[in-house]
Design a protein that fits this description.
Layout (H helix, E strand, L loop, with lengths): L1 H23 L1 H47 L5 H16 L2 H9 L3 E5 L15 E2 L8 E3 L1 E4 L2 E4 L3 E13 L3 H6 L9 E11 L5 E12 L7 E13 L4 E6 L13 E8 L1
Antiparallel strand pairs: 1-3, 1-11, 2-10, 4-5, 5-10, 6-9, 6-11, 7-8, 7-10
């Protein structure tokens, strides 16, 4: 009975100790609730400080850029800053060497008619090759031989030709009693030929134009034929012009000429 009583008292003591131990932890829980708002407040203050510092840096940089722009502007007037690139561009275009070099580099030729020959009036419709005036013409990187333009560089060329025919009966012929030439049904035809080096220099008609004229014997008459086209030419090719009734050719170079210019490869 005494043992039982002592055990009961020990049980009660243990119960009291347990309750006392539970009460010891209560202050810890209350301190945890106290630290949590303090932590949130500290984080909020740090965030505000970071935002404020970022804004301050941005304002500082903006003010620095404005200061640089304003400090550099007074040294050069606005008009000078705007017009200087334009003046530099004009100076570049006025340099003489560039345009001259590009122009001279293009293979090209322009030849006026040479001295007219005393072509026979017999066989009037027979086509004869025209001789050109090399001395008073222009050639660059193109050859010339016996009425033919010689291609020295392969590429795509523009070819052009113009021939003028004229006829009138001089008063000396009438006084001398020479019989007039019948020009009442005259064929005036212009051919431009191409000799291809790839086809053993075989001649092919590149262009053809002309007309049949009915002229008055006693008055001045004139007719001009003109044509042009692009064609691919190879090094070693040749070009020449044939005309019918060559004895009627106008001897002036402004009316009868032949030429070519390279446009590209």
């Amino acid at each position: 009975m005494a043992a039982t009583h002592s055990e009961y008292r020990g049980y009660l003591r243990n119960t009291v100790d347990i309750e006392a131990g539970q009460h010891r932890f209560h202050p810890v829980q209350s301190s945890e609730h106290t630290y949590r708002p303090l932590l949130f407040g500290t984080l909020a203050v740090m965030g505000l400080l970071q935002v404020a510092s970022s804004v301050a840096i941005l304002l500082h940089l903006t003010g620095y850029l404005q200061e640089v722009d304003l400090s550099s502007a007074p040294h050069r007037p606005i008009e000078e800053v705007q017009t200087e690139p334009v003046l530099n561009a004009l100076r570049d275009t006025r340099k003489k060497g560039r345009c001259k070099t590009s122009k001279e580099s293009l293979p090209s030729a322009h030849l006026p008619i040479g001295e007219t020959k005393e072509y026979s009036k017999k066989g009037l419709t027979k086509a004869i090759t025209i001789d050109w005036d090399e001395e008073h013409g222009y050639r660059n990187r193109m050859g010339y031989q016996r009425g033919k333009l010689l291609v020295m560089e392969s590429g795509f060329y523009y070819i052009y030709a113009k021939t003028c025919f004229r006829y009138y009966r001089p008063e000396e012929s009438s006084l001398a009693g020479l019989p007039p030439v019948d020009v009442s049904n005259t064929q005036l035809i212009q051919y431009v030929y191409h000799e291809s080096i790839k086809q053993n220099s075989k001649s092919m008609v590149l262009m053809k134009t002309g007309s049949t004229m009915r002229w008055n014997i006693t008055t001045y008459n004139m007719y001009c034929a003109q044509q042009g086209r692009g064609v691919r030419l190879d090094e070693g090719d040749a070009l020449y012009v044939n005309v019918s009734n060559a004895w009627m050719l106008d001897p002036e170079g402004e009316g009868t000429y032949f030429g070519a210019i390279k446009l590209g490869n």
